[in-house]
């Protein structure tokens, strides 16, 4: 069995949706060999018209600086999807390789939903690593394809030495109330079936591996009880 490469997981809140008090968050993973891996980059510094529901909070570059990191220290950006509250700062990480599902990157090219944020995610292809489905990026760091919220959305699983395994569903399951095997389909969402399939996929992982910590993508109530940067999970 390969050695777990992961040392720490930091949680950062970088903004909010004030109307619903929803936190906008991203994550930093540090490896034993000194690599810094961001999971999403939060909101853009200047929020465009399309994102007027969002409000910037503590600047994410400043938060990284508070633990001694500059954007150039980021080796990898795991991009869960290109929505403006998850990929708003991609362009700041000029030394990083971006890791995204091939299906998502292809969809974003023509999907108007991602047009406003295109200057952030549309980076030179030699700096984008396209992946297909579930992938072990490093020992202890896995990407789990969870389409539904958008095509080719990915969730992330992090194995920590003391905390154990942590699942980050991101927007596959934004709120704890949605982490259920019940199909939540009132007919209003054409993607309800795909969301359901991805939710069940993650529930199966949690049960099979007895995962103790699932951090939902935008759950204000849960977020208040979590350790955030400069604290970390190890
Ligand atoms: Zn989101």
Task: Describe the structure in brief.
The chain is an alpha/beta fold. The chain has helices at 60-66, 102-108, 118-121, 192-209, 220-223; strands at residues 6-17, 22-31, 36-39, 55-56, 76-78, 97-101, 128-131, 135-138, 141-145, 154-160, 164-170, 213-216.
Sheet-strand content, in percent, reads: 25-35%
In the CATH classification, which architecture applies? 4-Layer Sandwich
Q: What is the H level of CATH, i.e. the homologous superfamily?
A: Ribonuclease Z/Hydroxyacylglutathione hydrolase-like
Strand order of the largest sheet: 4-1-2-3-5-6-7
Write down how many β-strands occur, each being a DSSP E stretch of 2 or more residues.
Answer: 12
Radius of gyration: 16 Å
CATH structural class: Alpha Beta
Q: Could you characterize the architecture of this molecule?
A:
The protein has a single domain, classed as Ribonuclease Z/Hydroxyacylglutathione hydrolase-like (Metallo-beta-lactamase, Chain A). The mean pLDDT is 95. The chain is α/β, with parallel strands linked by helices and 234 residues long. It has 5 helices and 12 strands. The protein is globular and about 45 Å long. The site of zinc ion has 6 residues, from loops.
Key descriptive features of the protein:
single chain; 234 residues; alpha/beta; Metallo-beta-lactamase, Chain A; 7-stranded mixed beta sheet; 5-stranded mixed beta sheet; 5 helices; binds zinc ion
How does the SSE layout of this entry go?
Elements: E1 6-17, E2 22-31, E3 36-39, E4 55-56, H1 60-66, E5 76-78, E6 97-101, H2 102-108, H3 118-121, E7 128-131, E8 135-138, E9 141-145, E10 154-160, E11 164-170, H4 192-209, E12 213-216, H5 220-223
Parallel strand pairs: 3-5, 5-6, 6-7, 11-12
Antiparallel strand pairs: 1-2, 1-4, 2-3, 8-9, 9-10, 10-11
Bound molecules: zinc ion.
């Amino acid at each position: 069995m390969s050695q777990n490469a992961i040392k720490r997981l930091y949680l950062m809140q970088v903004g909010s949706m004030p109307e619903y008090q929803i936190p906008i968050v991203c994550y930093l993973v540090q490896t034993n060999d000194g690599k810094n891996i961001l999971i999403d980059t939060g909101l853009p510094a200047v929020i465009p018209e399309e994102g007027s529901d969002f409000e910037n909070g503590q600047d994410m570059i400043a938060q990284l600086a508070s633990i001694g990191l500059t954007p150039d220290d980021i080796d990898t950006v795991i991009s869960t999807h290109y929505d403006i509250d998850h990929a708003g700062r991609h362009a700041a990480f000029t030394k990083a390789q971006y890791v995204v599902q091939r299906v998502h990157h292809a969809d974003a090219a023509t999907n108007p939903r991602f047009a406003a944020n295109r200057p952030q995610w549309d980076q030179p292809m030699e700096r984008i690593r396209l992946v297909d489905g579930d992938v072990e990026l490093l020992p202890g760091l896995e990407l789990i394809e969870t389409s539904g919220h958008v095509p080719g959305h990915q969730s992330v699983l992090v194995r920590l030495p003391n905390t154990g395994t942590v699942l980050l569903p991101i927007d596959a399951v934004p709120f704890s109330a949605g982490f259920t095997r019940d199909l939540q389909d009132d007919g209003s969402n054409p993607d309800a079936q795909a969301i359901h399939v991805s939710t069940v996929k993650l529930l199966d992982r949690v049960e099979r591996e007895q995962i103790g910590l699932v951090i939902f993508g935008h759950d204000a109530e849960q977020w208040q009880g979590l350790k955030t940067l400069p604290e970390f999970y190890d």
